[in-house]
Recover the amino acids of this structure.
């Protein structure tokens, strides 16, 4: 446990001591704020348009029910945020294993009392904590603005849980990709490509049978994440994200095995 | 191998991205998909070959164990997810508990005579689809409902066949019958299910002609909503002009009298008396201040309605000009009509009269169903109501629980007469019927009167439309400056400082 604690401390120092992490955080926070602000501006403009066309001031009865804060602002922003995370989280995870591999320090890690499983666990834990921080930063602006609209705190909590689990899943995929290369660039690009491929399989519906389409939907990130956005916390969705992390950890661990046998 | 795999994944992601952007697989998407397929197959083959080349028993053991751990983790992940899905454990954290199905919906789904298919028609980018899909999935978990989704663009023939007008439309097919739901909510889907099942509640005869509520009027003061709700529950509605009624039609299961404002003819009242004596069922909605003759008739059955209007200052809806005139009731007696109603499931009355009960015969049963709080009284002075607005002080009226809905069962000649009386007719008007649990109480009263107790249930409620008012620009800007820009700014400063420190260090 002492070695694991030392590894976690070292990973924390590396992560928070690197400008890349803060730059990524800045980017996510800024992009979220700008996307949200833009959607809110357009939403307000649409409502203004309705209030002027009805000529009688603001009349909610004249506005179609799909023009509301949820459907016009919150959901599109959360959707975009989900995709934004696919693009940005691999930038955080790219260095975790690849840098060690490039410098050859992974050999040192393996020579300690730490087993490959513990090394992987330590790195995953630190990355997940950082991703949770990213989520708080990225969720801050939408949550503050939505709260003004008088929406339930529980619903916001559900969205946050979904967003965080989604972030963990992308981080896990990014880490698994990082474990197989010494190039941070390759780690980031492959992490992005795999996560983006897993994002949604609705494009395949036209080419596959209904059964296969259902299977593909079951393994896709987007439908799982989407139900959290609607305020539904399903136990199977939680375990889906946990499962992705578990499999990614096993795959990352296998990279150590391959290195040990010199492949 | 890794480089080839990388090319494969990037090409696949690019193909998918092109599909999302153009909504079709053009030459770019197809070419990328082909490259991805070839690259991933080559990478997989190369990877397998590399693994096969690993020599030595010890190395094989290490690699084999690693692969087993991956396989084990996949099995564990799938197992956990499936077990969780099987448990159906789900938390609805929406503000209005939008995905918790009402008992009536669950009942309707479980009683489906065969497998029904619900097809959700959608257009790309419709944000409402996800919510409807979740609602349908919840419904499918409860009953014999199979889900399907179809793109309107890919199946234009369905638009004409099922009268599908726009995206986010659900068509429920049961056998050779179908129902199209244009704005799917739990309530509208429930009604469609009910219509498909062709439930038969019986015949409801409605009196008209003496100022009774008009079941065809669709404005706030009309009762078209009540008519539609009864039809949904399988009742066949027949209206009869009371002035020309010599006998209540023999096919009547329930006679419904909604707030007659003028006195009914003696001949009509005699017909109702004969009908009740023969074991008929009556649901009467009275109005304070109106004397139609129904009051005297009900008194013969032990249901007396004293003159005056109920004032309940403890639970007022606060819409009335006089405090306490529009009571919100939540005291329910243990009776099938009030099944499922409790302190949190209230009913709204808009100016009501009260009742006093007595048993005409020892074998009769008369009981209260809904009553006010114990602070209520009957105000008999109409001028007092006109003169006083706002808070209403009780003068010398004794305060007590005031029954607002009562009922009675009367065994007569081997049959049973059933009567339910409401102290307010506006209770069922279009304006108030869908307020709180008014609809449930009234329809359940009709079910009870018609001896259709198994049909008593609580129906889905209309969900409020999500926020549709603008967020003021000042607030939005304050949040943007305070959180949206300040946080990234601080993070950027930290990042720059770290970079400079590293550079100098």
């Amino acid at each position: 446990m002492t070695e694991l604690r030392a590894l976690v401390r070292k990973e924390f120092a590396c992560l928070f001591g690197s400008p890349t992490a803060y730059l990524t955080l800045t980017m996510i926070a800024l992009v979220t704020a700008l996307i949200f602000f833009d959607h809110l501006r357009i939403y307000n403009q649409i409502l203004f348009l309705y209030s002027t066309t009805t000529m009688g001031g603001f009349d909610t009865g004249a506005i179609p029910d799909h023009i509301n804060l949820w459907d016009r602002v919150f959901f599109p922003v959360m959707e975009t945020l989900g995709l934004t995370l696919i693009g940005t989280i691999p930038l955080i995870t790219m260095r975790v294993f690849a840098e060690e591999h490039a410098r050859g320090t992974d050999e040192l890690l393996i020579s300690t009392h730490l087993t490959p499983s513990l090394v992987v666990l330590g790195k995953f834990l630190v990355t997940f904590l950082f991703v949770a921080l990213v989520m708080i930063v990225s969720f801050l602006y939408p949550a503050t603005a939505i709260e003004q609209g008088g929406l339930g705190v529980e619903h916001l909590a559900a969205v946050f849980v979904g967003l965080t689990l989604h972030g963990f899943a992308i981080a896990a995929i990014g880490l698994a990709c990082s474990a197989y290369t010494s190039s941070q660039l390759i780690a980031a690009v492959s992490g992005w490509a795999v996560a983006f491929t897993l994002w949604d399989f609705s494009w395949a519906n036209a080419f596959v049978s209904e059964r296969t389409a259902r299977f593909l939907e079951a393994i896709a990130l987007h439908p799982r994440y989407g139900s959290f956005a609607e305020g539904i916390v399903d136990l199977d969705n939680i375990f889906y994200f946990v499962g992705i992390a578990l499999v990614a950890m096993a795959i990352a661990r296998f990279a150590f095995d391959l290195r040990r046998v010199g492949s | 191998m890794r480089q080839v795999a990388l090319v494969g994944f990037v090409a696949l992601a690019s193909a998918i991205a092109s599909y999302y952007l153009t909504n079709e697989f053009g030459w770019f998407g197809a070419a990328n998909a082909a490259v991805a397929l070839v690259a991933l197959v080559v990478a997989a083959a190369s990877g397998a070959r590399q693994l096969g080349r690993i020599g030595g028993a010890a190395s094989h053991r290490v690699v084999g164990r690693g692969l087993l751990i991956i396989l084990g983790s996949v099995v564990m992940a799938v197992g956990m997810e499936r077990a969780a899905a099987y448990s159906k454990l789900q938390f609805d954290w929406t503000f209005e508990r939008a995905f918790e199905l009402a008992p009536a919906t669950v009942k309707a789904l479980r009683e489906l005579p065969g497998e029904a298919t619900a097809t959700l028609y959608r257009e790309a980018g419709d944000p409402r689809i996800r919510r409807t899909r979740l609602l349908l999935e919840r419904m499918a978990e409860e009953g014999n409902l199979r889900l399907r989704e179809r793109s309107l663009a890919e199946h234009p023939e369905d638009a004409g066949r099922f009268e599908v007008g726009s995206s986010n439309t659900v068509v429920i097919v049961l056998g050779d019958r179908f129902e199209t739901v244009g704005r799917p909510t739990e309530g509208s889907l429930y009604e469609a299910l009910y219509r498909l099942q062709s439930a038969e509640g019986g015949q409801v005869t409605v009196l008209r002609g003496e100022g009774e509520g008009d079941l065809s009027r669709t404005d706030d003061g009309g009762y078209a909503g009540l008519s539609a709700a009864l039809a949904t529950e399988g009742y066949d509605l027949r209206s009869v002009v009371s002035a020309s009624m010599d006998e209540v039609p023999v096919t009547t299961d329930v006679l419904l009298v909604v707030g007659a404002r003028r006195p009914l003819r003696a001949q009509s009242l005699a017909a109702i008396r004969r009908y009740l004596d023969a074991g008929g069922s009556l649901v009467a909605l009275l109005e304070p201040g109106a004397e139609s003759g129904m009051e005297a008739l009900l008194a013969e059955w032990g249901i007396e309605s004293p003159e005056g209007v109920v004032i309940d200052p403890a639970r007022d809806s606060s819409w009335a000009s006089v405090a306490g005139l529009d009571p919100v009731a939540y005291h329910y007696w243990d009776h099938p009509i009030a099944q499922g109603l409790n302190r949190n499931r209230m009913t709204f009355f808009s100016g009501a009269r009260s009742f006093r009960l007595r048993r005409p015969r020892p074998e009769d049963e008369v009981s209260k169903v809904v009553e006010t709080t114990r602070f209520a009284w009957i105000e008999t002075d109409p001028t007092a109501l006109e003169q006083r607005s706002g808070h209403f002080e009780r003068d010398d009226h004794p305060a007590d629980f005031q029954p607002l809905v009562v009922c009675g069962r009367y065994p007569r000649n081997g049959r049973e007469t059933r009567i339910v009386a409401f102290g307010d007719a506006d209770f069922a008007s279009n304006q108030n019927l869908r307020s709180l649990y008014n609809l449930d109480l009234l329809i359940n009263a009709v079910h009870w009167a018609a001896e259709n107790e198994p049909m008593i249930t609580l129906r889905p409620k209309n969900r409020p439309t999500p926020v549709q008012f603008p967020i003021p620009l000042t607030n939005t800007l304050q949040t943007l400056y305070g959180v949206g820009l300040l946080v990234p700014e601080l993070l950027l400063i930290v990042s720059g400082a770290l970079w400079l420190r590293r550079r100098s260090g």
